[in-house]
Design goal:
Largest sheet: 4 strands, parallel
CATH topology of the largest domain: Rossmann fold
Radius of gyration: 21 Å
Number of helices: 19
Bound molecules: iron/sulfur cluster
Strand order of the largest sheet: 2-1-3-4
Length: about 425
């Protein structure tokens, strides 16, 4: 039995390279925070990281830290600390867990990397393209550290992206340069920005290839692999190191494809995941699906760090386009078209929508989308209730029962 369980999850060897990358990333930030040089900018996960790097900042992403709070199952106990300050239990549990951790003076970085605390920011920079919560979250820290909070306000629910959208966002991005220069004491250099945008674009391209490897039958990776492999695409875009680590990951996936080595034994069903991961249940969910010979192999979430529009020859306009054409920013119609293409490309048998209680922004099943998409594509779906970080909102028994019933339903359809 123990042997059988062990073989359910086939870890990628190169996941270790990604872990090393993350360790180096946090250690570099810690050293900079202690030395006061280079300056540190906190950035929302789909914020203008390229501009920050080009202006000489090291970039720290609070969402990645909060995902760690979730994955280490520290988050749930910390959320009430922020609730006590008036931040509702119904709002983003990244925000509440992260502020809660700060108030308690703890961080998962201590256990994993022996780092005492998150790096103090010199500036916080958000983009509201994903939600308003990032702005509120950053504003709290801005006050705490007495440092500036600046940002970009993006249109939401966007159908077709027009020149007006792009101009508005590009102008806001350009206007960040002046305040950032005052903080970093660096003069803006267009060549440097072009270089960073090129690296970011290259990172996006290789990350896309990694995720698209799941097109193969059987698929060589799972969504759950993707959630841990994605670190460099989020925190390292715009750096050469992120590219280097992904070259190794892609080579291992190509090798798996060559050998028809699926990530899941005897892959029978292929599932698309929409919405946030349940960070504290990654391993439980990976085993649940693998035990049913089912691979959750593609997702909206991991694909959110593909920025194909980035163009080093036109940095501001292309950043504005890349950060506005993201799934989370778009109208339901545009989202449905996107998912439909994903279902075709990855040869998907079923969709799981995660109704994440505290993140309506990354939850797409509340306004009729599952039925509309099933009508359009014939692909059935299941909604599971839960949350990204607050495990009080997760029922393991209910998830297991519902998933097992859904896979049975797929089985019946295939007869
Ligand atoms: S998109 Fe959702 S999970 Fe991410 S910061 Fe906003 S509310 Fe939180």
């Amino acid at each position: 039995m123990a042997e059988e369980k062990k073989t359910l999850i086939k870890k990628l060897e190169t996941a270790k390279d990604v872990s090393r990358f993350m360790a180096d990333y946090y250690l570099e930030l810690d050293q900079a925070a202690k030395a006061g040089n280079p300056k540190i900018a906190w950035c929302s996960s789909v914020g203008p990281a390229e501009i920050l790097r080009a202006m000489g900042f090291l970039v720290y992403f609070p969402e990645t830290h909060s995902a760690m709070l979730g994955a280490t199952r520290m988050a749930t106990d910390l959320i009430p600390e922020a609730n006590a300050l008036g931040y509702s239990p119904d709002i983003c549990s990244y925000l509440t867990a992260d502020i809660g951790a700060f108030l308690r003076g703890i961080t998962p970085l201590t256990k994993v990397y022996k780092i005492d605390s998150v790096p103090k920011p010199d500036v916080l920079v958000f983009n509201t393209n994903q939600c308003r919560d990032v702005q509120d979250w950053f504003s709290w820290y801005g006050e705490k550290f007495n440092v500036p909070v600046i940002g970009v306000y993006t249109h939401r629910g966007v159908g077709e992206i027009t020149d007006a959208h792009i101009t508005s966002v590009a102008e806001q991005m350009e206007s960040l340069i002046e305040p950032l220069g005052k903080i970093s004491r660096k003069t803006f250099n267009m060549q440097e920005l072009k270089k960073v945008v090129k690296l970011s674009r290259d990172c996006s391209e290789i990350w896309k290839k990694i995720l698209n490897a799941a097109e193969a039958v059987p698929a060589p990776l799972t969504f759950f692999d993707g959630t841990t492999l994605m670190g460099p695409a989020v925190v390292g875009r715009g750096t050469q190191k992120a590219l280097d680590v992904y070259k190794n990951v892609l080579a291992e996936l190509d090798e798996r494809i060559k050998n028809s080595a699926g990530a899941v034994n005897d892959e029978r069903y292929r599932i698309y995941w929409d919405g946030m991961p349940v960070w504290g249940r990654l391993s439980v969910h990976a085993k649940l699906f693998a035990g049913l010979n089912t691979n959750v192999l593609a997702s909206t979430y991991c694909n959110s760090w593909i920025f194909s529009a980035l163009d080093p020859e036109d940095p501001f306009n292309s950043m504005a386009k890349a950060y506005t054409e993201l799934f989370v920013v778009r109208s339901d119609k545009a989202k449905e078209e996107y998912i439909k293409n994903m279902l075709d490309f990855f040869k998907v048998d079923g969709i799981i929508y995660h109704d994440s209680k505290t993140c309506p922004n990354n939850t797409n099943c509340r306004y009729g989308m599952p039925r509309r998409l099933e009508k359009l594509t014939g692909v059935p779906s299941l909604v599971i209730n839960g949350d990204l970080n607050d495990l009080r909102l997760v029922s393991d028994e209910q998830t297991q029962t519902n998933v097992e019933a859904f896979i049975e339903q797929l089985e019946e359809r295939s007869h």
